[in-house]
Design goal:
Blueprint: E1 5-11, E2 17-28, E3 34-43, H1 45-59, H2 69-85, H3 101-108, H4 110-127, E4 137-141, E5 144-148, H5 159-167
Antiparallel strand pairs: 1-2, 2-3, 4-5
Helix pairs in contact: 3-4
Amino acid sequence: SINPYEEGEVVTRTGERRWISWSNAMLRDRHGRVVGLAAIGADVTERRRAEAQLVHEALHDGLTGLPNRALFLDRLRGAIARGRRRSNYGYAVLFLDLDRFKNVNDSLGHLVGDQLLILVSHRLHQSLGPGPGERDTLDEAATGPNVRISGAQTTPRSESDIRVNYWDPMK
């Protein structure tokens, strides 16, 4: 038995990876015996890329590229569920507020405020290193970037590590 519809990745002679959607059919003789297979493939690489871009845009902030609240909540739910299943699994949530950020927007304009958000988000993102499990999650709320951490920590970070990495991201 074959799968009548499937998608798979192929590598071209030039080394490029392409996604192909296959429609497959068994060929049978007049007695019902299988004598071959007919398959037709269509390159769906661009469709796959467009779908991935739509998913990314739905789950990330357009300005900073940070995960949005929906993605953060999904990752937090996952961390909570893993914490319930595994006694040695730890996670933490940390909220960071940019004091007087509204003053930046009001006095210097939204363009400067946007540039500041991008700078802060990049610096915070750089301070988050990959953990042994999933990466820490940095997301953005309506008022600016907020650090939210979720992930397995087989070697827990110390409080001083968190202060260095999260409280002083502008160094």
